Structure formats: C-alpha cells, structure tokens
C-alpha cells in the first residue's frame, strides 16, 4: 500500500470514530429521545445541542473544503442551536442523516483530492488539515455526549 493510500485509510478510520474513541453512532445508540434535551448537573449543553453543533460544524468544514468561497455561519451564535431539544423526532432523524451524508461526502473528497494543496481563499488550510479538524472536533463533542449519558446513568455498561 502506498503512503497516500495508507494515510487515506487511517483518516477514514479516524473520521468514522475508530481508534481510541467511540463514534457518534455508538455514543447515541439506545439513547431515549426524551433525554436529548436534558442538561444534568447544570451543564451548558444538552446532547441535542452537541449533536446539532457537530452537524453544523462538520457541514461548514465540508463546504469550505469543497469551495473556498463558502461563507461560514457566524461564530458562535450560528454554530449552536438555541433550543435544548429537537422539536420532534423528524428533526433529530434529519440531523443524524445530514451528519452521515456530510461525513460520506468528506470521505469521498479526501479520496479524490490532493490532501496537501491549500484550499483556495483559505488561510493555508488543506483537505488534510480539515480532516484532522473534523475528527478532533467531533471526538471532543462525542466524549461530552458520553459523559452526559454517564451522568444521566444511561450509558452502556
């Protein structure tokens, strides 16, 4: 396997939640819908807000990677939902679908792009840098989801 193929393979594993941390699917598996808006122990975010934030940020990094002219949402206001819970199960479902679809699109992008080339109109960012950014950002917030589930005593044993 040549070096670039190995790097792409490792990036895919990392972006899918492999290695040292769980992925989003595992972090939310079996989570009751009625607990999505809970903020135990006065934590600042609910699981819904964390998952929706992951969706928005990942979408933004994908779009920026595809088009250096992409206009990002206003930080931090437009990266975090105001509501602590989704309005209904359809909104939750749609959020999860977009996360999956955007991640799949980003995985396709890393396979078809020069990982090291600077993204036009960026500040030195590359697809490789954005891949690490998505993986790091998602892992951070997924860990918060696991902690919230543990505090609510609804984490897998």
Automatic annotation (TrEMBL):
Highest taxon of the lineage: Bacteria
Pfam families referenced in this protein's UniProt entry, alphabetically: DinB_2
Chain ranges of the DinB-like domain: 26-145
SUPFAM superfamilies linked: DinB/YfiT-like putative metalloenzymes (SSF109854)
Designated name of the protein: DinB family protein
Organism: Pedobacter jejuensis
């Amino acid at each position: 396997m040549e070096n670039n193929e190995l790097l792409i393979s490792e990036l895919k594993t990392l972006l899918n939640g492999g290695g040292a941390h769980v992925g989003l699917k595992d972090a939310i598996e079996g989570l009751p819908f009625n607990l999505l808006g809970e903020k135990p122990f006065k934590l600042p975010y609910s699981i819904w807000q964390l998952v929706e934030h992951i969706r928005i940020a990942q979408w933004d990094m994908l779009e920026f990677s595809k088009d250096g002219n992409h206009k990002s949402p206003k930080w931090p206001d437009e990266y975090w939902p105001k509501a602590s819970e989704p309005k209904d199960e359809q909104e939750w479902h749609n959020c999860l679908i977009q996360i999956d679809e955007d991640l799949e699109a980003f995985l396709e992008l890393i396979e078809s792009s020069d990982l090291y080339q600077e993204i036009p109109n960026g500040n030195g960012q590359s697809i490789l840098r954005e891949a690490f950014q998505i993986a790091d950002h998602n892992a951070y917030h997924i860990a918060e989801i696991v902690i919230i589930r543990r505090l609510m005593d609804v984490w897998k044993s």
